Amino acid sequence: MTQRTLAGLIALPLVVALIVIAWVVPLPYTIYSPGPTVNVLGEFDGKDIVQVEGHKTYDDKGQLRMTTVSETTREARLGLWTLLGAWMSDTEAVYPREVAYPDQGTVEDDREAGQVQMASAQDAAIAAALTKLGEDVDEVSVAEVAEDAPAAGKLKADDVVTKVGDTAVDTPQAVVTEVQKVEPGDTVEMTVERDGKTRTETVKTGEKDGKAYIGVSLGATYEFPYDIKITLDPAIGGPSAGLMMALSVYDTLTEDPLTDGKKVAGTGTIDGDGNVGPIGGIQQKIPGAAEDGAQLFLVPAGNCQDVDGAENGDMRLTRVETLDDAIEAIETWTEDPNAKLPTCGSTK
Predict the structure, then answer these.
(1) In which band, very low, low, confident or very high, does the pLDDT at 218 lie, cut at 50, 70 and 90?
(2) Is 240 one of the annotated active-site residues of the chain?
(3) Same domain, yes or no: 167 and 200
């Protein structure tokens, strides 16, 4: 037996051991896969997903499908074999765990954060839909009053500010602008709603950076003219269904069916003014929607750089920046499925 052969025989078990370890030992990566899509015009647990009290509602026999991503948890133990399979898939993606989960936490922390994001997205979706319908839903509330602030003892957390002086206000910036119209040390009249009652407080302003201030943190909130509730599977979290929820609320409150009986899917965050924002996992959401029979997919403009190569089949992709864009695209497409629509360049 030569020395080279002997060395090979000795090394073979080590090589085999290293291969086994590579296949078995968990690696710090996360897999994104197409998740289920949900018709937000449909039902969950036997009840309409969009429920309205105090306003007439209308049925639409078509579908507005929100899309999701199935993501392995931060505690999932994924071996090399599993990761290679996902990496070679046309519809799955592999990301370093620190990219998918940049913060420290637990699976339960992730679930709770997702639910908080979903609740906020639902409020914004309702606000966007009602604003589109001509309702005034914006209001501004006091989030916190600093202990030594000029407004301490005058304003309280959760006060809804309706006027500064004689000027009606409905955004935090509007409050700041009106307060800064007076000289530091002058007083301002703050009209607020507290515990169902209207009251006016006189606040002597302080000085900060040469301008008048009252020392409160403000937040944008909404006041809806009637009750609207969106109920989804609590396992679904995050803000990315905002656009589709807004479309569903709008469609439910308008007489003419938006979809004309067709299947529309999409994704995107939304704010109360109807602006659509980008999301993650669009390469998985597009094939998930196509698999479930959607014929048109709404792509946030901020995700246009992410859609090349997505498996959309015969499903059309159209770019949207606002709720108005989405409504116009759907109406145009339902009238003529071959109509020209805004795209992300090479998408069809």
Answers:
(1) very high
(2) yes
(3) yes
